TrEMBL record:
InterPro entries: TatA/B/E, TatA/E
Subunit organization: The Tat system comprises two distinct complexes: a TatABC complex, containing multiple copies of TatA, TatB and TatC subunits, and a separate TatA complex, containing only TatA subunits. Substrates initially bind to the TatABC complex, which probably triggers association of the separate TatA complex to form the active translocon.
Protein name per the record: Sec-independent protein translocase protein TatA
TM segment ranges: 6-23
Organism phylogeny: Bacteria, Bacillati, Actinomycetota, Thermoleophilia, Solirubrobacterales
Origin species: Solirubrobacter phytolaccae
Compartments, record wording: Cell membrane
Amino acid sequence: MPFAGNIGIGEIAIVLVIALIVLGPKRLPDAGRALGRGMKEFRDSISGATRRDEDDDEFETPLTRAK
């Protein structure tokens, strides 16, 4: 996982066990789904901002030399 950094399998397992205890088995799938949707929207907004930034370069006027 590229965003994980130095997080190992043990740490991920601990987080999942805590989430299971806090949310319970009935609400855990809904929470995972909501987290996934949020991550997707975040990625889409970041890539959209990058695309808009790249598109802005088309409209810049060329630089001219100072006399």
